[in-house]
Amino acid sequence: MNEKEILQQLYESVLQGDSAKAVEAAQQALDAKISPLKAIEGGMTPAIQEVGDRFGKGEMFLPEMVTSADAMEAALEILEPFFEGDEGAKKGKVLIGTVKGDIHDIGKNIVIALLKVNGFEVIDIGRDIASTDFVDKAVDLGVEVIGLSGLLTTSLPMMRDIIQILDDDGVRDQHKVIIGGGPTSQEYADEIGADGYGETAYSAVQLCNQLLGIAS
Ligand code: B12
User: Residue 165 — φ and ψ, nearest 5°?
Assistant: First the structure.
């Protein structure tokens, strides 16, 4: 199979929610020396977006969205160990999680994998995390960057709250805050006073480099 066919296999397996096929296609991608990021962004992400669009239009239902998410996660497990970067460089600590009320974490996990292979120490605080927990943990661990992920419209106010709590606790200047996920935008980041917004996992790496003054 050539690259185009393998990416198509990844696309179809996620769309169909076929974990076995997704795992097989992920392995084929590695064998064909397709970079994990290309396999994700060129094959699986468009498929899961299509699933979301169909769900939004009422053409697909929750159980199908779940099996598609499972297929994507199964393939990611195969690909993630093969991300390439400069793991040796110790660039700084990033705490990242999905905000309260939101359990979407596929995107967050990709961001984490990319940050790690690009030399950041990453603390994954998980998903559906209370705003105060983000702040407490960030302070305890002395992280340079706090990454907030959210895919629901209702996640947006949580991001605002976290920045407010950092302010109230007098520690806002000790941590950079970056946001990402479907409903977020540069405009929203500006509105709540976040330090950055990233549309993709790679942009999370670029943002952290920029904010910490690291040449990339
Ligand atoms: C998969 C999925 C699920 C899975 C999640 C599994 C999991 N472990 O994550 C399941 C089936 C569990 C699920 C549940 C629900 N979902 Co859902 N889901 C999706 C779907 C189809 C794909 C999300 C995804 O994984 N995308 C792939 C990844 C790679 O992309 P990503 O998350 O955007 O992340 C990338 C970037 O955004 C960025 N990024 C992400 N985080 C961060 C953080 C930082 C700091 C930075 C810089 C960058 C960054 O980098 C990532 C990699 O490039 C979306 C549709 C969509 N278009 O987003 C709906 C969607 C998000 N879900 C939706 C809904 C409504 C729900 C439910 C409420 C459904 C229900 N009735 O129960 C529940 C919510 C449960 C909850 N409390 O959270 C809606 C949200 C609507 C809204 N505006 O609020 C969407 C948009 C579908 C739709 N069109 O209606 N969902």
Answer: -65, -40
Distance 49 CA to ligand 1 centre (A): 9
Q: What are phi and psi of 96, to 5 degrees?
A: -140, 145
Cα atoms in the Cβ-side hemisphere of radius 13 Å centred on 172: 14
Q: What is the pLDDT of residues 117-150, one digit of tens each?
A: 999 999 999 999 999 999 999 999 999 999 999 9
pLDDT at 216 over 70: no
Q: Which two tokens stand for residue 18?
A: 């076929």
pTM above 0.70, yes or no: yes
Q: Which CATH topology does 3-82 take?
A: 1.10.1240
Does domain 92-211 fall under CATH 3.40.50.300? My reply is: no
Closest Cα to atom 82, ligand 1: which residue? 152
